[in-house]
Structures are given as structure tokens and as C-alpha cells.
Amino acid sequence: LTRLGVALLGMMQVMMYAWPSYVGANDISAEYDLLLAWTSWALTVPVMVYSAGPIFQAAWRSVLSFKQSHMLGMDVPIALALALAFIAGTINLITGSGQSYFDSITMFVAFILAARYVELLARQDAQGGAEALAKQLPATCERISDYPNSQKVALVPVVNCNPGDVLRVSPGEIIPADGSLIENASMLDESLLTGESKPVEKKIGDPVYAGTHNILNPFIMRIEALGQATRIAGIASLLDKALLAKPVMVSLAEKWAAYFVAFLLLSAFISSAVWLYFDPSQAWTVLVSVLVASCPCALSLAVPTAMAAAQGAVTKLGLLIVRGHVLEGLVKANDLVLD
User: Fold this and answer.
1) Which residues contact 102 (CB under 8 A, 6 or more apart)?
2) Is 339 one of the catalytic residues?
3) Nearest 5 degrees, angle CA 314-CA 320-CA 321?
4) In whole angstroms, how far apart are CA 47 and each of 50, 107, 124?
5) Cα 18–24–29 angle (5° rounding)?
6) Where is average pLDDT lowest: 30-44, 186-200, 288-302, 308-322?
7) Distance CA 8, CA 15 (A)
């Protein structure tokens, strides 16, 4: 967000200084025109160094790993276009001839970072399902220290409990840990774990699970598993694995994006070489323009964002997707089997 903020500030200021050239203002003296140009350059430097820093780092890592992967990431043409445009703009500013591309550079960086932030929001929204499961567990519980000699309870943090401790769970409360019921039968709502809305009867000796609701009688249970060892934590872990797994569609998009990057770089340099022959003054502009306009950002961002958003949406509906390819396979499904 800080990098995006710097890029947006730089974009707004540089665009403001470039406005006279857009409207063809002729009443600005040469020294003030030069001042605006150098101020635009000074505002573009932090955007290039700070805001676009991760883009250059990712591009450099992609180039270094090319021998092993034989693929270039989409950050390579972005970094190349930004670097070439900045170098060309700086040279033109020093020599006093040609265009300075500082307004285009700052705007391009701001748009790229904004698109990636939207993608990040979609992924975080999807991960909210696992976090929501974790938040279902209470922070405190009623522990019986000297069971069965005493029924006196003490309110303690769940993190201070250990397997073997005895807890009292009142009606309406959420069970804080996995365990077994040792006194008083009750009815539990286990819909968070099973999707079944009908209450489940629990008798002495039956297992009870963290995150489920006690809806009938107060009962006493013995802890068998806490924290990451509980069943609800296992479900949250499955959600995280599903988000980390790459569906086939995402892998294909990344693969074709890599091929597209190689084709893009080749096309850009060929186009520049052709223009160098016909009109050398346009060669550099054409090179930068092809790199920017043909960048496969949409291809590389759209599919992962859509998949993450879809997984987040179905998680909120109460569906647990363990493998990412399931969403792609559903479109071919003809029959649905329910247990």
C-alpha cells in the first residue's frame, strides 16, 4: 500500500507538471518549462526505485532462473519497458530534444500496483474462510481443577489448558477443544464441521469437537486435543492447502504467459529494428510502446484472482474445497452424489 501510495502521488504530481504540454500552452518560458521537466524527473525517481522496486527484483530473479525454468516472468517486459522509458526520458531531458516519458512511467507503475493490490484483496478474502473458522473458538473456558472431588470452576484462557483437563460447557457456549463427554448428556450443533443443521445427541463417552455449539444441557468434558490438533484446525489447514495448490488453469495461464513474454520481447525488438531502418527517431518509442501495450498482466493476474475469489465465495457458503482443480472440473460434471 505504501508503494502504491508513493506511485499515485508521483503520478498525480507529474501529470500536473505535464499538463501544459498536453494543452499546448505556449506562454511558459523556457526556464520554467525546464524546471517542470526536472521536477517531474525528481518525482519519478522514487516511483522507479521504491514503488517499482519489487517489479525489478522479480524480473531479475526471473532472468537468473531462466537456465533452469526456460521461462521469463511477466515482470521482465514491465521492468524492461520502465527502464528503457526512464533512460530515454532522462537522455531527452539532458539533451533538450524528444519526449520525456515520466508521466507515462508513473501512471503505468501506479496501475500495475493497483491491479496487484486488487488481486491481493481477492486472495485475502479467500483466506478469510480459514480465519473465520479459527475465530469460532472461544478464548476462555470454565475449567474444573479437582474433578470429580470438586465441581468448582475457574475461568481460564484456553491456551493455558492441557490434554486431560476437565471443562464445564454451559448451554449456548462453543466447545473450546476436542475431547470426550464424561458427565450429562446433551445436544450439539455440529453444522460448522459437518454441514448438518440438525442437532446431534451426545451421550457419556461420545466425542465432542471444538467449534461446535452446546444447545441443551450443561455438560462436563475431558480435553483430548487443543489448538492445531483439533478437527477444526485440520479443516482450516485444508483450506490453506487448497489456496496454495495451483489449479491446472492457473498453471496453463502462467505457462502461456511465459511463452507470450518471449514472443513479446522478440516482437518489440523486431519492431524497433524495422522503425530504425525507416525512421530512427521513432525506433525507441516503438520499442517501449510494444513492451508496455502488450504486457501480459491481464493474463497472469486474471486467472489466479478469479480462482481465489471463487474459492473464497464458496467457503462463505459453507463448502470446503480441498483441491483447486475441483472448480474447473465442476463444469464437466453431469451427476452429483451426496452422502
Assistant:
1) 14, 18, 40, 41, 43, 44, 86, 89
2) yes
3) 85
4) 6, 10, 26
5) 75
6) 288-302
7) 10
Interatomic CA distance for residues 128 and 148, integer angstroms? 41
- CB 250 within 8 Å of CB 307: yes
Strands 219-225 and 200-202: unpaired
Query: Minimal CA–CA distance to 20: which of 31, 29, 12, 28?
Result: 28
* 3 state DSSP class of 48: helix
Q: What confidence score (pLDDT) does residue 249 get?
A: 60
Q: Is 230 exposed, middle or buried (0-12, 13-18, 19+ CB in 10 A)?
A: buried
The pTM is what? 0.60
Cell of 190: 455440529
The residue type found at 29 is S
Report in angstroms the alpha-carbon separations of 31 from 11, 92, 327: 23, 16, 61
Average pLDDT over residues 245-252: 61
Mean local confidence (pLDDT), 224-240:
79
Grid cell 525512421 in the structure block, residue: 279
Strand order of the β-sheet with 178-183 is 153-157, 140-144, 166-169, 219-225, 178-183, 207-208
| Chain mean position to CA 301 | 10
| Rounded CA separation 7/13 (Å) | 10
Helix-helix angle 102-135:2-23, to 10 degrees:
150
Comparison of pLDDT for 295 and 218, the residue scoring more: 218
Residue 70 makes CB contacts below 8 A (sequence gap 6+) with none
10 Å CB burial of residue 208 (0-12, 13-18, 19+) is buried
Per DSSP, the three-state class of 318 is: coil
Q: Round to the nearest angstrom and report the end-to-end CA distance of the chain.
A: 46
C-alpha cell at 214: 452446546
Given 27, 146, 335, 339, which residue is catalytic? 339
CA nearest to 102, candidates 31, 34, 32, 13:
13
226 pLDDT higher than 90: no
